[in-house]
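dude i think i finally got it to work??
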Amino acid sequence: MAKLYFTHGTMGAQKTTQLLAAAHNFEEHGGRVLITKPAVDTKGDRHLVSRIGLRREADFLTTPDMDVEAEVLQRREAMARISAVLVDEAQFLQPAQVDQLLALAVRHAIPVMAWGLRTDFRTRSFPGSLRLLEIAHELRESIAMCGHGGGCEHRAQFNARMVNGRFVAEGDQVAIDGEAAVTYASLCAGHYLEDVGPIAADAHLVASRLRR
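look at this
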């Protein structure tokens, strides 16, 4: 049975590089892949851009209202076969779209490999990532080292947002790296607490989950 895979990691963990390498490996052996990323990720426009300089145009952009299952099946008719669907920046998917990715794997025997962030700059789950953590067949972690500097040798656990070079703890969940003076640093838990501040669960969110 085909599976839905989710590889999560902080920024700088080479997730896009891994996706592009996977695409190359499939194609080198005669496979055919479909590559997509959410349209909200405007970095690189229609291209996937890795931090080491690799880039490739997505076959299609996933809009918030798109039925990903239907889109892939329609494209498979034209392609004759699909070896795998590869998804970059999967944290920006709608939860229903993650369910559609699972359906592609289970109902239609198309392996789906997704890469994305686990949490945002406030340590909260993205809706797409949370759903992937709930239903993916296999979870993998891509490791990056803490970007604090000063010789820290701990692995990065959180993504910290900076605006004009200063760490911030409030703001919209989605702000693309490099736009409107926004940048990010991947930090270990200790340096996140030191540079950004205390971590606290969202009381309303916790209460909502407990009532389920």
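The longest strand covers residues 33-38.
im so relieved honestly
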